[in-house]
Amino acid sequence: MSAEVRSTRVVVVGGGQAGLSTSWCLTRDGVDHVVLEAETAAHEWADRRWDSFTLVTPNWHCRLPGYAYDGPDPDGFMTRDEVVAWLGGYAATFGPPLLERTRATSLTEREGGGFLVATTGPEGEVIFSADHVVVATGGYHLPIVPAWAPALDPSITQLESAHYRNPDQLPDGAVLVVGSGQSGAQIAEDLHLTGRQVHLALGDAPRVARTYRGRDVMTWLSDMGLYDTPVAQYPGGATAREKTNHYVTGRDGGRDIDLRRFALEGMRLHGLLEAGAGTHLSFLPTAGAALDAADATYVSINRDIDRWIEAHGLDAPPPSTYEPVWRPEAETTALDLVAEGITSVVWAIGYRPDYRWVHVGVFDGAGRPTHTRGVTSVPGLYFLGLPWLHTWGSGRFLGIARDAEHVASCITGAVARRQPVG
Prior knowledge:
By secondary structure, the protein is of the alpha/beta class. Helix content is 23%, strand content 22%.
């Protein structure tokens, strides 16, 4: 039996904050469209965050088209459940044409222009024929796990960060967390605060102060325009898209994450995890250099704030200087999991995109879409919700509205010109 074919002007793939923001703009502009969501709207906030998760950006950053945080604590940090509730209320404000549990399985170009989006869902197989497609599924699809991970002893529990919920989920014993980006650092903290023995394999993630000179650092950075600067204007240009986000936390009202202090309290810090088999792991001796580099970024950002305050004659508390509280005396390059009592490994290395269902030639050699502000070289095909899509703010609530407005304006402009494909 052949699939049903339905026609619409625009197909938006993804019902998270980026897809819903696009839908809000298109609904406002009277553009016929449909939003396809493989699970439920914004499900990743509920399904892929641990129990103690909080935003690392202040609540006032939470702004979507026609919808902004208006709670009692704009400078605080919403918990996972609060984010789920806040974002869950968005769709009700404008009634998007949302099809949940409807997965896009294939995107191909339509003969003569436009696209065909094959789907599977409650109504079976349906093909949507559209002039425009907005892929708003984000860029974090497949967890990065070393190819040798299956060679570890099967008695060791292995868990990807998206599936971590709380320390009680893991077997008794010490835990190795691999990766010191936002997720890895916060999961290591979560385990550490409950008294678990934690080993943390450091990557190259930088860190940032939570507050400096009387204000949240991210509020300073916003005032300084860093979240609004196009990626092309940053040193290195588009290579900024490869940078790891700074680690910090919004937990308990927000604070720094200082891995050196955790080490003083008993956390074991290691360099880059290089290889493993059975119960044996090997590390590169890079922990000291990783800590120094993270601190250098921390200090550099604070100095930028100092210069901003001085240049604008602002009244603020005096500057301060960070002094390292711990340094590694010797670096571990080999570890026996059994000898250390390590019973589980949490992989928090990061994610890579997975667009294998998109059969349109707009990708680079690493499988990432090539675009300018979300607009690809193929007329009518757009991407949204990617980190550094246009600015540093693009991958955050703060920048989604601007990106969605830009892409929607490209679509509505083509509709106004009566062009079937824009």
